[in-house]
Records
---
Amino acid sequence: MATALLKKLVNTRSTHGNHFRDFKQLQSPFRVSAAATSAYSRSSTRASSQKLGLLDWYLNCLKTRPIITKSITASIIYAAADASSQKLFGETSGGDYDVPRTMRMAGYGLLILGPSLHYWYNYMSRIFPRCDLLSTFQKMALGQTTYGPTMTAIFFSVNASLRGESGDEIVGRLKRDLLPTLINGAMYWPVCDFLTFKYIPVHLQPLVVNSFAYIWTIYITYMASQEKAGEERCGAAVAACGS
């Protein structure tokens, strides 16, 4: 009797042990899945933290060194836009990339556009501190009638001067290119200005405008790279004589 009872007890424990091992084996895939999920979560958190860290660093630079930060940002965007312009309009065929042209655009963004954007948008926020529709349209009107035309004329003039054009040639370029550029700008910039003035904090407005300016700069750098007005007339005259 005692022997039979002992065998039954051993069999019962063996059965429970098998069930326990089966339960552990059933748990193991879930443990692996949980570990993988945890690792992915940690990786995503680190990536998000790095992105937030870069954004925090940039925002801190805007706060502590606003002018130089906005100037460097404008310089990078203008250089990138000019590179895109040369590529899109086929001006780099044969590998002849115009490095001095890109340097001129980067210098304009760094030394002229970046600082002017800082002072202009701060001035707009002082004279029109509200963000209602009336104030927004007043800022847009001033931008389209004063700041925009002035900076476009300065851009064409500085770029032409750095290319070695004379005063008369610069005037001829402005007569030929300024008005068409302003007309095209009037079809592009009002929407950009409305979004910027209406919804963007003043310390971020130059960054947003520079982002909008990337597309615009592709066009305007192409216009600035056109041949001199005098050369265009001479070329037309030579073609007429040859025919």
---
Amino acid sequence: MTETATLTVTATANGSKHTLPETPSKVEPTFTAPYGPNVHVSKHPILAHKLSILRSSSTSPSSFRSSLREITFHLGYEATSTLTTKEIPLTVPATNHTDHVESTGQKLKDKVALIPILRSGLGMVDSMLDLVANAQVHHIGMYRSKSLMPVQYYNRLPKKCDVDVAYILDPLIATSATIISVAGMLKKWGVSKIHVVSVIASKQGLTELLHIHPDVHVTLGHVDDELTADGNVMPGLGDAGDRLFGTASVMEDEEELVHPSKRKRTMSMDSGSGH
């Protein structure tokens, strides 16, 4: 919905009148209409600036890590706005430094769990802990097979669920198959409220996630239009895990499980060429 600004008329020193727009009474909604109210896409200009740094191929791993932390803090601040609080008594020091004034404060009521998806989700944990210091952190390791299906290799969810809200952390939502799988695990574990925090999502992946889990909330920095046949978001931000930790892509040939010292020498090595 677009707000129409009201107009005000002001008089100048020479008696002429100018019509000036007033500040809109409401802030433009930040969710993207096609996806409904459970999806929040930030329109903050600082985040857009930081997102450009994160995307850039010239950004170093160090700058990538710091940018991801800053973006996560911004998105996490918005994502946690629906947490509930309870009143608590407290005292405030008076200006004379000896007396104290009785007052009432607020304390988070919800028990929160952070669920980073390994390994790129690790880069989002510290910022979320800055916001919710007492949150539990449970790691889930997933990788995408050549068929684009998620494969779980690590799961540290405890047997008993004692949290009210779980925040799934993953910088990029491509096909959304991984997020869909993790959300299903959390529901089976017993979490009643699930919130995904991600920097970028593909339009197709986001639509599929909401189709399978319409009750899940999502907070994003941006939605990219294109998803390639091999499951890459365009323009996306590259391999978030590799860029976060400064690692090269894992080998995909038959020597992947062979010790480096036992692998065949490449033609460049045999010819004695350098880097």
---
Amino acid sequence: MFVSRVGLPICSWRFSLPPFIEHLSTSQAIKALPRRIDTRTLSTSRVSNFSYFKTLTSRQRDQVSLYVNVLLDWNQRMNLTSVKDANEVMERHVEDSLAILPPLQNYYLSHCNTSFENLNIVDVGTGPGLPGLILAIACPGWNVTLVESMNKRCIFLEHAVGLIGLTNVKIVRGRAENLGQDFSFREVFDVAIARAVAELRVLAEYCLPFVRVGGAFVAAKGHDPQEEVRNAEKAIQLLGASVLQLFSVESQGPYGKRTAIICLKDRPTPRKYPRDPGTPAKAPL
């Protein structure tokens, strides 16, 4: 297991809707490391369509744009995303990541007993940092742990986090099945989030062991996940979550919407879960 944290001065912030985040930080991003960043820019005619991106402060928008550029630059040398265009990254990745925030806020304030402004969250199977890195930009008061099993992606995340200047992100290399049995990570997070990792009943076994009792598990899914949800209900109950709600969120994708599936964890996850690496995918609950 590899754990890394970038340590710079802590940012200050306050929370409001709308805009749903205001970042008051005066800290400066670290200067570019190893390679020069491509100066691609987002199309100004398309930015007007990015409703969540527009709610960010100018500094946060700059940080997101820097992330998009470095993602596309590194994507030329390693397979980080199938998307090759900056505007498409904004549509398919950034906007979808930010769209999680309003339903999560509404749900969390209704069902959980801690402040929404200082959450400890884990993004399981983050890949190139989606949605966790984008959420860390939008919510600088959160502590965000990015879990990723592939070394090359962790190297990219290290570079991106340092370049952007984020102080609230920790990168952990390892499999969810192993980390979920580690008491340093087990049932210590307010929220576990995952996007496009696996079907919901598998994802529940990856994520719910990380969530404290009273916290939430959020899965970002497609426009019509009803059958997947029905198939996962037994697994979610078995793993300690009893409340299941679906929130339709705006999307730039072909169907115009995606679904945030939010589960409240009200019981400890039985100690035998998660099972050994590879077992949840091969033999779903």
---
Amino acid sequence: MDEQPLSLTQRVEMMTSVIDLLVEITSCLTEDQFEEFKQFIRYESYETHNSYIPRFLRQTNHQEAACVTILTFGQNSVVKTMKILKKMNRTDLVQKLLETSSSFKKKPSDEPRSVLLEKAATMAAVKELLLEIFHSLNNGELKKFMKFLQMAFQNDFTDSLSFLRPSSDRTEIVDVMVWTYGRQSVDKTREILKKLYRDDLMHMFPETSSEPKVDEHQPPMFEKTVEEDVEHILLETLKDLKFKEFEKFKLLLQLTYFQRSFTRIQWNQMKSATTPDKLVHLMVMNQQPVEVTKEVLLDMNRSDLVERLLGTDSGLQGIYHNITSLDTLGNIERLKI
């Protein structure tokens, strides 16, 4: 009897356990060793398609570093961590990983899991599911899949075609899909597989879609003056973030785009957004910038900045009301400025 595929929820739990395990292991490192570990992660990440993510590692705690690791390497994070620990001559921690990785279960805690952990685990789980499915396709089927995907990009977006090359491998295709469609990548993959008559792979998907119902509308149409107001209110909100907070905001921003199935900001653009004004300029070109900012700030427990965003302490209440009214409009295309 064939083994039942893991549900997306089960996959998320597995990724969460990996993150918890990495936190426990890296917590055994000294402060200097932890910095060395993060340097190795950054170096190793250059071989992946996610090299923008580890920039956040410069100033992170153990849980944040574990989230970045799982986003970069997925289930290979444990193997990658073992290799790094060997290079650091921490064979005791390698042995601990070997002994606990197959049976690790985090002890119950009264502290709720961080939003960053949950979102990172969800994204990693979706990517792992899609990669397993893609490995079930032969090279000819993969080329046909890419053809249908290119057509979907052309219909749905105007700037995603450059992400996918004829030589793209399975991992890169998954990255591009998740980057572009967020959690809806699962449904998009299912749709294309039906066109390839690979109904035998349908069993790998959850029986009931675990994807959230999201607004599929295009970004709201802002007049130029309103767009300037959007930039102004967001910049007023984010301008005082410290470096570490700013980098965390950027990572959570990308994860929030994923959760909402919004197209994420291109990694090279995100890397270049070294100041709040540059980041805000990119954000207003995407969907629901004000609401997304509000969600990220709440995830960061920065209720003071949410109040600033709402205009309660900056005199921007009227502007905010006008912006959020437009921010929730759907089924209209963005005005090209």
